[in-house]
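R.M. (postdoc): so does anyone remember the format we settled on? I'll just put the structure tokens first.
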């Protein structure tokens, strides 16, 4: 987090996993939530960083699957976001 945002997170809590297939394997992203941090938010090579009110997220251009990711992150009964691929068809599975 510090490298990409300038923030040091305190006691991150794992809230889900996102995964999708890549050649000869899979790519796994761990989804964390934090409520405490130190430092100043800084942009990096990953892109421009800024604080956005949660209620405004739907009006901002983000990754296409952000709404589904947030559903996993905010629902205690959900823990997995997975892309399943069959030929050229990609489908999302949320559990």
């Amino acid at each position: 987090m510090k490298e990409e945002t300038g923030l040091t997170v305190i006691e991150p809590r794992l809230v889900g996993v996102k995964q999708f297939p890549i050649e000869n394997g899979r790519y796994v992203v761990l989804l964390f939530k934090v409520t405490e941090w130190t430092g100043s938010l800084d942009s990096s090579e990953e892109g421009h960083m800024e604080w956005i009110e949660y209620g405004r997220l739907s009006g901002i251009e983000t990754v296409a699957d952000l709404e589904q990711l947030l559903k996993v992150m905010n629902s205690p009964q959900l823990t997995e976001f997975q892309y399943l691929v069959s030929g050229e068809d990609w489908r999302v599975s949320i559990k």
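R.M.: ...and that's the designed sequence above, right after the tokens. Also worth knowing: The chain has one domain: 2-94. The domain at 2-94 is CATH 3.90.79.10 (Nucleoside Triphosphate Pyrophosphohydrolase).
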